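User: Please fill in residues for this 97-position structure.
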């Protein structure tokens, strides 16, 4: 081992403290970015869950099943479409009744 002091390390406590503050700030920024991404992914998952429920509800109509439940759903969707709603809003409204 050499008696020569290393130049690649911090020699003053204030430098060490400043370095730690910078590292903590960088980690905090990364954490906040990951939190935003997680929030967006949760919202996307919720939207996909709702779309899956809509699909399951409307699938008997699309496939042409002939039973009382499907006939009732078809009537509800038709009435709501006639009232002016379209797309997801129409299916959501029909699912409520």
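Assistant: Residues filled in for all 97 positions:
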């Amino acid at each position: 081992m050499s008696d020569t002091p290393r130049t690649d390390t911090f020699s003053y406590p204030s430098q060490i403290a400043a370095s730690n503050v910078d590292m903590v700030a960088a980690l905090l920024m990364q954490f906040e970015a990951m939190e935003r991404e997680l929030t967006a992914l949760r919202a996307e998952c919720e939207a996909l869950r709702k779309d899956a429920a809509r699909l399951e509800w409307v699938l008997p109509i699309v496939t042409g099943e002939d039973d009382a439940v499907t006939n009732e759903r078809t009537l509800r969707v038709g009435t709501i479409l006639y009232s002016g709603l379209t797309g997801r809003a129409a299916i959501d409204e029909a699912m409520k009744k």
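For context: Helices lie at 13-63, 68-83, 87-96.
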